[in-house]
Amino acid sequence: MAANLSVEDARIAAACGVDGIIVSNHGGRNLDCVPNPTCVIERIVEQIGERTTVLADSGVRRGSDMAKYLSLGAKGVLIGRAALYGVASGGAVGASRIIEILRRELDTVMALLGAASIEDLIGRHRYQ
Known about the structure:
Blueprint: E1 2-4, H1 7-15, E2 20-23, H2 41-48, E3 53-56, H3 63-71, E4 76-77, H4 80-113, H5 118-121
């Protein structure tokens, strides 16, 4: 897996045969001037999504953030920071609680959009 925001780098990675990439700006911690992954993920998916798994990361705090990434074509969304906050506040139980909250929020957003399944969101550009 490689992490980047460049469409060209994603094409190169796919040509090299990677199984997947993570589109991430590392939460904006490294450079606050880099684009949000929502600005580039759709183009990356258009270029390599048929042959390479594209995952999204950065700024995921709510279920609606997950829905945005999925609607732009991501096959999955990473929730590392949210899970770490859960661990910090309550260990494994806290992490499970965060996942439960995110899932419930995602379910609510999906219901509001009329999406019966995750597959109904992926690449549908229904929520931006």
